[in-house]
Amino acid sequence: MATLDVFESLDVKKGQISAEIWVANFQEGHHENLNIIHVGWNIAPSYYGDKKTHFLVGWTADGYNSTGCFDLNCNGFVPVNYAPITPGDTLDVKRKITIKIFKSKDDGDWWLHFARGGEKLAPVGYWPKSLFNTLDYYADHIQWGGYTTSLPGNPSPPMGNGHWPRENSATFEDLQYINVDETGYPPLPMPGIQSYVSNKECYQVSRFMTNKFKYGGPGGCTN
Fold first, then answer.
1. Fewest Cβ atoms closer than 10 Å to its Cβ: which of 111, 189, 202, 217?
2. Which residues contact 62 (CB under 8 A, 6 or more apart)?
3. Is 221 domain-assigned?
């Protein structure tokens, strides 16, 4: 679970900018066994056909080899009636959203709850446990953060709001793990939470303190 800032960008061409929560069961060296659920916001003109910020929902049971998809483009994620948002919908920028992903103690399915800033969490839908093989019982890897992509040789787009992790940069806050009784508790700092940056010349992440962290950068990398 986490609350995160939502931003817009005019600097994405054929790449993408995203901020998400990833819940996965990951077996080192066996990408074909990667079971993952991921939810957040995404700017991807080549996928959505515009430069707007969209609510992204994705899943796979084999590292996107033959199973899974984004939003509602395949059978898998099951939306519920009267949901506060639908996968793929556009989001209001400069407004926080809260995402909660948990495994139901009643039916064993993975549920998604969502709220816009100041509103109460409400169910969006669920992923049936039957979709997965390693994630059907538990997750062994959880990640909060941002990522970007670009075509080979093209400068990478900005991440977050394009600022380095400082006072006015993009933030993940109120990070929580979810118990089997579906209540949350804050994760411990290092070594419980570890940071990773793939290219420090273009992006950075702050220290994890008081259940939040800042991240982002101007982009511009070509490797």
1. 189
2. 32, 33, 34, 35, 68
3. no
Residue-wise pLDDT tens digits, 16-49 = 999 999 999 987 666 678 999 999 999 999 999 9
DSSP conformation class of 170 = E
- Whichever domain contains 138, its CATH number is 2.60.120.700
Distance (Å, rounded) from C-alpha 110 to C-alpha 23? 10
Predicted model pTM: 0.94
Residue type (1 letter), 107: D
Q: Indicate the DSSP class of residue 152.
A: T
The rounded distance, in Å, linking the Cα atoms of 129 and 103 is: 9
* Count of domains forming the chain: 1
Helix (H, G, I), strand (E, B), or coil: what is residue 100?
Answer: strand
Range(s) of the domain holding residue 103: 2-216
Q: For 45-72, give one letter per residue: b (16+ CB within 10 A) or e.
A: eeebeeebbbbbbbbbbbbeeebbbbbe
Residue 103 near residue 67 (C-beta atoms within 8 A)? no
